[in-house]
Specification:
Elements lengths: L3 H29 L4 H5 L4 H9 L3 H37 L4 H19 L2 H5 L2 H12 L6 E2 L7 E2 L6 H6 L18 H5 L2 H19 L9 E2 L6 E2 L2 H11 L1 H9 L2 E2 L5 E2 L7 H16 L3
Antiparallel strand pairs: 1-2, 3-4, 5-6
Length: 290
Amino acid sequence: MKNFMVEIMEDVMSNRAEKEERKKKLHDLLDKYRDDVRALDGDPGLDGIDFMFAKPYLDEVLAERREKRERSAMQVKRGRNEFEEDMYEDYGAYRFRSDEDRRRQASVERTVRKERKESVADKYFENKHWNLLGQLESGGKYDKYNLEGGGIGALGKYQMRKGILTDLGYVNSKGEWLGKDGIYSSSDFLGLPEVQEKIARKMVDTYYKQMKSYMNNVGTEIAGKVSDFKITERGMIAAAHRIGQKNVKEYINLLEKNKEGKYYFPYSNFKGSEKAKYEAIETRLRLFSE
C-alpha cells in the first residue's frame, strides 16, 4: 500500500503535468487565432472545446505571451544599438589615445562602415524602395496577415511566406516557428516591426544570391507593356519576392528582341493566369527600375 504522502505528491505532479499540457494547448490555439480570444471562445468546433478546458489558465498564458514579446523586443533593440553603443563608449577615451591608436581606430571604423554599406540591402534599397515594397505588399502594415495561398500564410509589412522564412531559419519544413530572434509564433512576428525589418534585409540578400547568375541582365532595356524601363538588381529582387525567383528567370529567358533592338516579352504567346504572372513580374521590374 502506497504511503499517503507519496500519493499526494503523485497527485500534485499529475495536476502540474496536466496544467502544463493545457497551457501549451492554449498557446497553440492563440497562435492559430492570432490572440483573438473572442473568436476562439465562440468557436463551435474542437478548438472551442479545447479552449473551454484550458480557459482557467488564460490570464497566466496571456501574461507569459506579453512578457515574451517584450523580452524579444528588448533583445532586438539591444542588438540593433550594439554597434552605436560601443562607438559611444569609445568616444570618451578617444582624445586620450596616441596618434597610432587613433589611426588604428579610424581604420576599424572605416572597415565596419564599408562592410555595412556593401550589404545587398543597403546597396540597392533606399528608404523609398523599402516604403514602396511595403506599400505594395501590405499597405505598409506590420500586422497584416493573409491566409490565402496556404501554409503559414503571408505575414507582416513585406508579406513573407514559409519559403523565405524557412530559408532564413525562422520556421521549419512543417511551418513551425523555431524561436529565432525571439519569434515563437505568427503573433510574435506580427508584433515585432523591428524584427520584420531585420528579416527583410536578410530576405533581400537571399534573393540576390538566388538571382546572382542573372545579374548580368542588369541594364537591359525593356520595351514594356506600360512603358520602357531598364532591369535593375532591386527590380529582380522585388519581383522574386512577389512571384518567385524561378518565374523571374523564366521571364528573362523568354524575352525577345524587336526591330529597334529592344527586348520585350511576347505576351501574345500566353493566356490566363500564366500571362498574368509574367505581367506581374514586369510590373515589379518597372516599378523598381529607378
